[in-house]
Specification:
Four copies of one chain form a homotetramer. Chain A has about 375 residues and is of the alpha/beta class. The first copy, chain A, contains ten helices and 17 strands. In chain A, about 65% of the residues are buried. Chains in contact: A-B, A-C, A-D, B-C, B-D, C-D. The interface between A and B is large, with 42 and 42 residues. β16 of chain A pairs antiparallel with β16 of chain C.
Chain lengths: ~375, ~375, ~375, ~375
Amino acid sequence: MRPIRVGVIGTGFMGRAHALAYRAVSGIFPGLRPELEVVADIDEKAAAGACQQLGFRRYTSDWKVLVADPAVEIVSITTPNVFHREMTLAAVAAGKHVHCEKPIAPNARDARDMMEAAEAAGVVTQVGYNYIKNPLLGLAREMIANGELGEITGFRGIHAEDYMSNPEHPYSWRFDPSGGAGAIADLGSHIICMARFLLGPIEEVMADLETVVKTRPVRGSADRRPIEVDDIARLTVRFARGCRGSIEANWVATGRKMHLAFEVNGTKGTLVFNQERLNELHYYRAGRDPRHSGFLRIETGPQHHPYGLFCVAPGHQLGFNDLKTIEVADFLKAIDGGEPRGPDLREAYEIQKVIDTALVSSRERQWKVVS
Amino acid sequence: MRPIRVGVIGTGFMGRAHALAYRAVSGIFPGLRPELEVVADIDEKAAAGACQQLGFRRYTSDWKVLVADPAVEIVSITTPNVFHREMTLAAVAAGKHVHCEKPIAPNARDARDMMEAAEAAGVVTQVGYNYIKNPLLGLAREMIANGELGEITGFRGIHAEDYMSNPEHPYSWRFDPSGGAGAIADLGSHIICMARFLLGPIEEVMADLETVVKTRPVRGSADRRPIEVDDIARLTVRFARGCRGSIEANWVATGRKMHLAFEVNGTKGTLVFNQERLNELHYYRAGRDPRHSGFLRIETGPQHHPYGLFCVAPGHQLGFNDLKTIEVADFLKAIDGGEPRGPDLREAYEIQKVIDTALVSSRERQWKVVS
Amino acid sequence: MRPIRVGVIGTGFMGRAHALAYRAVSGIFPGLRPELEVVADIDEKAAAGACQQLGFRRYTSDWKVLVADPAVEIVSITTPNVFHREMTLAAVAAGKHVHCEKPIAPNARDARDMMEAAEAAGVVTQVGYNYIKNPLLGLAREMIANGELGEITGFRGIHAEDYMSNPEHPYSWRFDPSGGAGAIADLGSHIICMARFLLGPIEEVMADLETVVKTRPVRGSADRRPIEVDDIARLTVRFARGCRGSIEANWVATGRKMHLAFEVNGTKGTLVFNQERLNELHYYRAGRDPRHSGFLRIETGPQHHPYGLFCVAPGHQLGFNDLKTIEVADFLKAIDGGEPRGPDLREAYEIQKVIDTALVSSRERQWKVVS
Amino acid sequence: MRPIRVGVIGTGFMGRAHALAYRAVSGIFPGLRPELEVVADIDEKAAAGACQQLGFRRYTSDWKVLVADPAVEIVSITTPNVFHREMTLAAVAAGKHVHCEKPIAPNARDARDMMEAAEAAGVVTQVGYNYIKNPLLGLAREMIANGELGEITGFRGIHAEDYMSNPEHPYSWRFDPSGGAGAIADLGSHIICMARFLLGPIEEVMADLETVVKTRPVRGSADRRPIEVDDIARLTVRFARGCRGSIEANWVATGRKMHLAFEVNGTKGTLVFNQERLNELHYYRAGRDPRHSGFLRIETGPQHHPYGLFCVAPGHQLGFNDLKTIEVADFLKAIDGGEPRGPDLREAYEIQKVIDTALVSSRERQWKVVS
């Protein structure tokens, strides 16, 4: 592969994660050659620091400079969600491939604009739903597609963490309703993505969104600000394939740090996964010797591609950053003419439609078709 | 305590479980003295066999004889649900204390009749929601009541098993719609009971009930019979105390044998329980030394009353039948003038109202107040 | 089966456990009919209380009266170990079947005397190694015997608890060196029994016994008494079948309440068990589809006899007292002419020889043949 | 930090792991600047391929060229163990800092030569005992050192995998007795390192080494070659601090992929760790509220340095390659004048002495002092 130059906007949690993944990927995946070209952050000192530490060639405090940079082929967008639209449209307009963090937009309309622009421009897009890059998720999807679970009868998914559980956690952009939603956007989008990855489209939703902590303190002030976005979202869903399920997003789940989990039941088997133990997938197969009835704890190994590129021996385990590296590899391969593996902006738009539908359903307290 | 004579109607799974519990309880709990007097089963051979093995004094194939027996003080009803109403009313009319298996009735109206008759007669009643008799459930309830979890922010409960997951499992009385419902009645009632035990009344429900296996073979025939009752029920609920939650009942969850589980989140802590490991309760307490952030796996021991009556040493573990023994002990103590600990027919009626409300909610596809 | 009358000596933890098991067994196992005849305790009030609560017909403060009682057919011995020899010999001399708690004697010589006397008298004996009565242990043994694990290559066993971990735990009869040994006798005997149950005789031992807490307070005194018996025993062993292993006994393992666990490796598979989760057995089978490589968590169910006699549904779980009930059932069946399933006094003698050998090995700091 | 140029000898599992770590470290740890200069492999094509993919500047098939290269400041040695001595001595003679994989030598004499040469030359050395770089291991060590477990009463450690469990696994250099030993060298060295890291020096050993698979097929031949090295090693050990323990190394443990685990008991608490779930540490603290008695499952987070450099959010989890990155960071900081954190060649020599002592102990079947 030719070198592909990358510009990263944002130097926070995800900006750093993207840069680390682009740095790592060429060592892990044969033939990939991204180069870290420019990093942008509105805080120039942060940009300069990230530039030096992460090995970019240049930095800027103006993301538009980055987007306009002719050397840059990929624009990676890791800023707060509210900026994703503008940046994506600008990058697409400049003919760049776009790697955007999730959720991509405050609402499906914006997401559709972004998707349509990208598709019209013919650029490759990648959205940061990194958890489905886990080789065990690939295995789960393949087993479902192969019919190894029989006919699917139900799904139960959750993404719960506790970073907002302290009522004294101060107000931040994540609570801004113009960003679209709360836990359902930040966490729910992951488990919706996972549900779709495994089982395909969700076509109808009944949701109940709830704000548990009614006001949050304003940093540097004695005031408290009322909160409008959801702390918890509970969805009942119907998949286009016929089965149904439930989904919960929750950022006030005290004690939970990464409870991104699902259970899929089928007439012939069941799969259970929990990101808290991301190197394990639990599998029950009906019809086994009854003496040995139970769940199999599958451990990741080289037989689960691309684990073997990280480590030739089983049981050594992947970490979070490795999932991001796989995401980047898939993106680079697609740019280089490979089969896009997504999730791309179209998929992110589909996820956003489910979220939007959930918001309406909750407000109107009734079932809503995802449309 | 004076001897209290027991008549058990039914000799199946639960009939046997009741009898074993009445046999065991006097050895475990000081002062309790039930005596197995009569056993009834419509199948006289079954009645005779149970009589001999379980140590009853007499048997009958006519449950009315049992109810009318002046020696009998407690009538234990373990037949299919459809008979519970008639038997309970007869027993109450005869002035007997009633121990009835769950769910007590096909609908809340019948349940209310049963409850009102019992209350009017002043008899003590006990319903077989044995799982809440687990000492760890008592601990959980106490911790919540004490405020050790802070303000409760959410509940997620499930009771999933797989005994109906095979589409070739033949039609039986459990699928008879005149019995009221399917999984939500058979399993859902347990997790609804548990939710109420921990958090109090549920006041509003949005439910989605689903029949996954559309037809079942008729035993001894080539025909298949259409199924109307639910295989899976998914509820979103609002508790009177203010928090919300979700509840699932599922009898087609391939691989699950006893997945009766919950998570309760509060602002100060979280509890996680799974009947698959019934001697463990997982507890996260916010504000602990951050180096040691995590869930505590509490193991049952003598400090969790009444475990110590079964075994003086910790870690030895209770089994299912022991839970039934605790249920029976609570019942006998209430008959002997102690504080009733329930669940009684009133509680069972409240549970049944939630189920009925769920049925209506699912049919009408909207939120329904439990009334 | 004819009624078989039982006398129980001792009313402590195990006295009670025996009585509960004899009470329960006839309800669980068809055809068994033990009757609780006499209970003896040197503390007459304890004897009277146990008699009333547990349902014996008579009590006595003189165990010799119990042994001499012509109605008594089984003598159950649950006193401190130091009395087992005298009581067993007396019971055997009186032609009684003997159910003795473990360890049966302070040393192999005494154990042999007991065994020889019992065998000469032709009575049936049962020793309280209840943990091997778990249906999953039966499954494990059967799988090993069937060759399902291939050739066995190693064993690792442990029984660790923490009831002596507090250095201020007062001196008691368990520390009396005339009782033979400490943790290796009280706990080690269980895991040695389990090792032998699964893999057959141990023929050579290298042991290291250690007293961690050097002195213990004397109850009701300011003095401390030096401790001679072992708190921890670590053994390397060679089995007669050719494989080797390690065994640990530890009663100062802070936090461990019932860590009785093993792993058996074979060329074709592995089994892992932990009494902390006694209803689970973990099984790895080599050669499975590599995508699904991992350990299977087998859950107990009716397919694992005699679980189904306790409960017809899987996943409901047995508890500790249920294991004791199975032990009693095996004993009663053997008395009634069935195949003795042990462990009997001969097996207990074999276990004691391993313990004695370990003591010598540790003292002499060298390998010792079990002879 | 100034740039530090690295040469890596070997391109297999560990050669690649080293290179990936040197690539990643500057992105994760602020201020570190290694540069991949030369890679050597006796197979020139492998060297060329690794050079291109991993981003070295040059490659060579002659490791002596690498060692002599004046640009190279660090020599990383990842070849089969038998070459470590010669390469290390050459690198040290050339004034290079040495990063050597474990075990460093076939015996303690060679290890001592290496250590003495390095210390005389004043170079920094690092040995690839990467598992102790886990932040949770650092926490465990600190808790023990702080006295949070009280007085330590026992240790149980194991490193078991199954890569040699198939008797048809062909003969390779790992079975060559001139390499020193089998499982005890390859795996045992890790758990011995961990034991020393937590509890300090081991001063006496009683070992039993066993060759389970007596002959192995020779690749490309019908012959089988007898095996002399150990498949399983079982050690009883005494630590200089006074406590004792047991250690097992096992490369035929069917089903185990990364069972590197320990339990440390103290009078006030216990720690349990298993590399199979490397982001969890289980902690029991005596004296807690008895209602909440149990083990705490500590999950890694930013509070466990340097996890936060990889990811700012808790629960996201580190993987194997991240541990190697921490190892490299510690090494680079020491070269740059920081406090060496080891394990260095001196520590590796100490580990090797334990292994050598175990070999003698097993051969002579008696306790041996580590000297």
